[in-house]
Amino acid sequence: MYEWNAAIQKMIEWLEENLTDNPSLLDMSKQIGYSPYYCSAQFKNIVGMTVKSYIAGRRLARAAIDIRDGDDRILDIAIKYGYSSQEALTRAFVNAYGCTPAAYRKNPIPIALSNKQVVFFPEHYISKGEPTMSKTILTEPHTRIEHIPAHKYIGIFDINAGDYGKFWEKHDCDKVCGIIDSMSHVSHTIVTPHTAGWFWEDGKKGYFYGFGVPSDYDGIIPEGFECRELPASDYIVFFHPPFDYLKDNGEVMERVENLAWNYEPEKNGYEWNEELCNDYQRHYPEVIGYEILRPVKRSSKK
Question: Is the CB of residue 259 less than 8 Å from the CB of residue 141?
């Protein structure tokens, strides 16, 4: 299973890079060294949909982003993503999102975009004796101070889910992430889409997932989400620089989290900001690495 999940993830990465180039099953099969038939069967078994359905969903999602953020003609966007005409794109758009591309461009409402799939989680295989972490490229986690201005956060706050895994056992990942992707044009430049974390209510730890928006945001709140106002604060950022997700994700997360949850800020003249009980989590392995942000303020102790 390890081998096939890794192979299918490579196929997905290749698809993402070639969505506008009419990718074929034969071309993809050459990337991982198995027959087209076997690749097709394993893709459906692991991803839960056919390669054709996956490509169609991702092309439509990418077209929606281009319609929302760009000024190219809808016809040109349709041709770019393999649709025979603007009418063909419109039919697919209405069927998936309930509005036309033109209406969406004028009023980009929250829609559930089809997400890039992740089917390979290296940390799941560590205890099974599967390929181990490469210690030579990892470092010890570091800390820095970052100031985040006052902002609002739109997300799903689940007090009964204390971590990432439990959160997604209760919520539809594809739908939630698709809605968040459709709102990326209004997100905060620091608290970006798919920023998650932990919060506390009455001494109980919950998990949240969503995106930040400017403090003056007064737009749409997607159904099932809520908007919370958060004051400006300094944060201690516990981080590991960019790393190879497929090889080192589990080890990196464990190292950063061990430091974050056992850190004593008083040693550096800070204390935890108990008035701001949100700890942020950023997870972009090949871009920024892995980070946990915990709010602090200058220590009142002399």
Answer: yes
Strand partners, 201: 204
3-state secondary structure of 109: coil
The span from the first CA to the last CA of the chain, in angstroms, equals 57
User: Nearest CA to 1 among 54, 47, 46, 36?
Assistant: 46
pTM passes above 0.90: no
Can you say how many angstroms the Cα of residue 169 is from the centroid of all Cα atoms in its chain? 16
Return phi, psi of residue 104, to 5°: -65, -40
3-state SS of the chain: helix, strand, coil percent to 5? 45, 20, 35
Closest listed residue to residue 125, CA positions, set 254, 244, 2: 2
Amino acid found at 189: T
- Non-local (6+) Cβ contacts of 252 within 8 A are 138, 240, 243, 285, 289, 290
- Mean pLDDT of residues grouped by 10 in the chain (302 residues)? 75 89 79 75 87 92 96 96 94 94 95 86 47 56 93 95 89 89 87 87 91 94 95 94 83 94 92 84 86 91 64
Q: Which residues pair with 198 in a beta bridge?
A: 207, 279
| Residue length of the chain | 302
DSSP letter for 183, please. Answer: T
Q: Give yes or no for a contact between 187 and 211, defined as CB atoms under 8 angstroms apart.
A: yes
Contact 206, 225 (CB under 8 A): no
Q: From CA 195, how far away is CA 211, in angstroms rounded? A: 6
Kindly state the tokens that stand for 257: 């989290």
Q: Please give the Cα distance from 251 to 285 (Å, whole number).
A: 12
Bridge partners for 172 per DSSP: none
The DSSP bridge pattern shows strands 151-158 and 270-272 to be unpaired
Q: How far apart are CA 236 and CA 10, in angstroms?
A: 35
